[in-house]
């Protein structure tokens, strides 16, 4: 491949990179438009604005306004039906200038080639994910999140694949590929294979989850290294967030990944030319595709870049967990079906069954109402919370969420106040049967869509579901139940994730991180349509409350 | 001798009876003209348009068949008379015309193949004639036109009017089909060149070398056959065969980024002569933007200038007449060179008066929405456009969701012709007349549901997606200069294709891009896996068990073999002890 082999092009790229290294206030829209036009692309811009439901303290933004700039390289003699996307986020204060420079250099080089069969869209998006969301919604003319954007003028047909480029520092020693997308969706495994194959060919150090692959699979340390890498992937996938700009493409059935340049202060350095050659290779391969990537797996976990665990291997693990629930349900069903010895006349039976229905329905309704409150209240009542307490909006939202969550623990008392008379032995069994089946269906569906999330929830909720009865020791069980509740699962996950990333935190920092993770989760839902927060609030938490209710059955 | 004799018979047979006596100066019965227009484009690219026209004053429909052909290709003449064709238009295009960068083409065509035919009203079974005709044309042009069947053929009611002499416009006799997936290459160019009287041996056609033509941004070749008037009163009619070839060369890939174009650089050939059979052979270079040669210079220079009204604009052309020997100069070869004085290319986009784009909105594999966006960039005039959409049946259009909005308000079409699809039988046809307000964007949206195909109906590459042909926008766009309505006046060929009936507007046809839509696709590797698994289970598991259960075991008596029997027989004769 001849990219940048001739000195003129190399000089052009260097001058671009120097220009971009100068401090820039905001995104240089006009300059980008002019530069892309000079390279023979059709250039368009898109303005967008979005007011967040509450301020995002991690990224320090509340009212976001920006412009996306994209240039389309029209493939010769192609009818504008297929396109590939190369994007680089560019935000004020963000140092992704290297990536933008490389993108422009590639645009210049690609423009002079004759072999393109698909249009190539070079996109520079402002405000990373928000800009990308605006551009994708504009391109597909959908509006799922209530963002304001100006309609796009130029298109290239159906997008076949996309790569997002992030080079955060001037020096790159290794390249990392990020696959986890919104709601735990993953791109086709062939995209990762393509990246790995070209890294091997060109001789670039490549990683996944920022961890280098080791060859000693047999040894204990090598095995645990791979397991840790895979657990990182499970954690990231379970979070349901988009771990790079690529994550939003997956909703539109566009295979996408983010390539990150990492400076880990090693001896061997990778220059921009090498990264350019890698991208050129990948785009030429993608350009040659006759069909969308579909031959390989969409459901996989990766212990290293060269190995994967397919759905056929990991699903049985979940299946075994779910079987516990089904067996427990069967057991309860059999217990309910055997006629109780003390009731012999039919009249009492009928009475009991009517109270049974009520005793099941009331906790179900109340726990779901609590869930709905958990979903609605934090964002709705942030202003009121800010007025009454001396906290910022973000804190208000998170603390309201925690307060509603904790408040829900008083559910058994509320339920019992509504049900007249005492709960019966039969009553809790029926309720538990319903709850166990509910949990089984819920976890089953979740695991099909986002395996990691389903699996982590199953790990914590299945023990709860199987042991809880009103007859176990109350205090001990209550403590166990709370520790295995979704909120604590999240807390533990935060610590484990930090531990796996080899960045352990103190409890204080961990708690702060936990609060910010909650706010991020809520924001992800409102900004990009992530489904984890509504799933937890509207389904998983009410389900857990049912078990809590059974424990305190009177 | 073989050549001249039938000509004499023909002369006696036709001319003696009617026009020969009336017209004092006998006109040639057939006539061939060739022409090349080169337009340097705004973006630095260059547009070359070849036009070849054969006129023949004959009647293909009369009782005794036309048997002698001179300039007109026999293969097409036979097609016209056999299928009673009144008008035939085919185009093969590779690439999409970029209106925003290149302006309007002289003759628009959609990506892929397009075919529309008007049959004579004497044809009784139009569908049968159409089916046979597409198969014949498929053979003539080496193209997949045989894939045209009832599922992609429509009968537009208003968008495709006859371009020649109009007697009757009952759209029962019209058939229109596109194949957006058709890939055009040299095998389509070769038969097209063979239709020319000089082939590619002489004249402008020597420039048509495929290695250069297919190294371009856009390539389109067309054939148009229609009856036209010979004079103003239309006393005599003749058949016109017009072959055009349009190609755009890219500044960056073909031109190596240098704004300097020559015939040799574009076509890797130079011109040495006109086609000897041609009555006129000219090259036009568009120099409207360059009146004083301030931007580019032409060499060799030509004193001839010509003006023509093209697409609502008066353009100036430098003309090279190839029938004059002086054009070729002393080297007896013409290599036109256009050299720019500054290398700076303009890169801003054009704002053509009318342009359109189309895309599929939404996500997921169940539903979607087709958006067609039409731009009227005229500052103060509104004009009506006819929109034609032909959508395959497997996208089930919800016609109740059809909306037309301009400037944020509903825009009610004054005419809508909708023919619903029938599964596996015919496509949707939607035609409507929409008024585009001045300086506005009009958006037509309609929702659809993706059908689940039968498993044999998928193409071999189902994950590539399914094509939906371009929508066609036909419009009379207000013209800034008075159009030429006199059809008999001598005009360059490129400006005389669409008949012009009024001075204030001109006809434009705009094609949008085709769409590529993914349908829900089963995993086709699964049946294979299932078959393999089942076969293995049957063969290994069931087979061995069945074998064990049904086999009867018995002890086999040792049976002496033939050789041993013979040996023992001989031994018995000899009296030697037998073998055991």
UniProtKB/TrEMBL annotation, chain A:
InterPro entries: Gaa1. Gene3D superfamilies: Zn peptidases. One of its GO terms (biological process) is GPI anchor biosynthetic process. It comes from the Eukaryota. The keyword Transmembrane helix applies. Keywords: Disulfide bond, Endoplasmic reticulum, Glycoprotein, GPI-anchor biosynthesis, Membrane, Transmembrane, Transmembrane helix. The keyword ATP-binding does not apply. The chain crosses the membrane at residues 313-334, 355-376, 433-463, 475-497, 533-553. It is found in: Endoplasmic reticulum membrane. GO terms for cellular component: GPI-anchor transamidase complex. Pathway: Glycolipid biosynthesis; glycosylphosphatidylinositol-anchor biosynthesis. It is a multi-pass membrane protein. Component of the glycosylphosphatidylinositol-anchor (GPI-anchor) transamidase (GPI-T) complex that catalyzes the formation of the linkage between a proprotein and a GPI-anchor and participates in GPI anchored protein biosynthesis. Binds GPI-anchor. Heteropentamer. Part of the GPI-anchor transamidase complex, consisting of PIGK, PIGT, PIGS, PIGU and GAA1. Interacts with PIGK. This is GPI-anchor transamidase component GPAA1. The gene is GPAA1.
UniProtKB/TrEMBL annotation, chain B:
It comes from the Eukaryota. One of its GO terms (biological process) is attachment of GPI anchor to protein. InterPro entries: PIG-T. It comes from Nothobranchius furzeri (Turquoise killifish). GO terms for cellular component: GPI-anchor transamidase complex. Signal peptide: none annotated. This is Phosphatidylinositol glycan anchor biosynthesis class T.
